[in-house]
Amino acid sequence: MRNPLSVTFHLLLSMLVLGCGASTSTSEDLLVSNHYLTFDEVADTRAFFTWNTDWRPMVSAHRGGSYPGYPENAIETFDYVLQHTPALIECDISMTKDSVLVMMHDNTVDRTTSGTGKVGDLTLEKLRSFHLDDASGKSTAFNVPTLREVLEWAKGKAVLTLDIKSNVPYELVLDEIGETASKPHVVLITYSLAAAKKLYSMDPELMLSVTLRNEKEWDRFVETGIPSENIIAFTGVAERSAAFNEKLHQHGVCVILGTLGNLDQRAAARGDQLYKEFVNKGADILATDRPIEAANIIREQP
Question: Which positions carry the signal peptide feature in this UniProt record (predicted)?
């Protein structure tokens, strides 16, 4: 039996699906107006990410977002983003020398902290002695969080999409998810169908992000036997056709477009209205380095 989500999390999901709504709406208003989201009906991410015609676009904060004074993969940054908009929080799992799962994108800490060295060569105690740097290299008072801390923080606040780095055994991640009862608000990112099949075999209730950029990749996915209700389709970092996005929708699959990188740069240069064009062509979630800016535009969708 699936564990029900907390009331607070349902309020957040309602806000997400409605594109955050008008600022004058109350939580109760949002729940009443969203006929398919109730306290009892949404028990996990598989239910939440089943696409239907009532879907409203949302953003996923790449590496949790990164703004001046707020470094990537930091709980304080996650909070900062959520103060401005509901968002999925994408973050990266690495492992220390003493086998503690922590949030870090790179193999080394050189770019993102005041320290140096490979993550896998550092103990958690040593890693905690470093301060996180923001994107400009400015040091902050924030430290590297553990996966467990992030899982506990997310309850009632956000859905996490977790990017598992190659040095991290899946078993350890699933243990942490299980011990913190976090499955209802977690999506695991995969980069190959083999990885998706392995995770599905380990727990068929997991929600997975699977890269599906064209018809051939969709056909190969179907051959895996993984139910479409278990996946979100990451369609890459280039726009896909409206027809392909619609095909995914016909199977109840939500579409994540990675605007991080080139598409974000285009939007910053040409105007944030570009984000609307992406969702008008069928992108349901924008995985972006500019979550606040993108959300401000797409929440204006009718």
Answer: 1-22
